[in-house]
Amino acid sequence: MASVDRTAYPRFKRAVSVRELAEAFTPSPDKIAWARGRTQHEQHLLALLVQLKCYPTCPRVRGQVTYS
């Protein structure tokens, strides 16, 4: 069986500082407004924002994320 490093499942770093968390995962007011316009419930809003903020930080997923 292949090791986790050789699979398609991206991993986050084990140790992340509070500053790195705040910089990488605090959504901007524009992104919150965009996500709020596409969801009907607070739980869905949270899930969408988490996905939006995690996607570009995955080590194996690179590229520009656009919001339309």
Gap between N and C termini:
40 Å
Secondary structure tally: strands: 0
CA-atom Rg in angstroms: 14 Å
* Number of discrete helical segments: 3
What is the 3D shape?
A: flat
The residue ranges in which pLDDT falls below 50 over 5 or more consecutive positions are none
What share of the residues does DSSP label as strand, in percent? under 5%
Structural class: mainly alpha
* Helix fraction by DSSP (H/I, runs of at least 4): 40-55%
Average pLDDT taken over every residue: 78
Note the topology.
Elements: H1 18-25, H2 29-36, H3 42-54
Describe the protein's architecture and organization:
This protein has 68 residues and is mainly alpha-helical. The protein is flat and about 45 Å long. The chain has 3 helices and no strands. It has helices at 18-25, 29-36, 42-54. It starts with 17 loop residues before the first helix and ends in a 14-residue tail after the last helix. The mean pLDDT is 78.
Structure described in brief:
With 68 residues, the protein is mainly α. It is built from 3 helices and no strands.
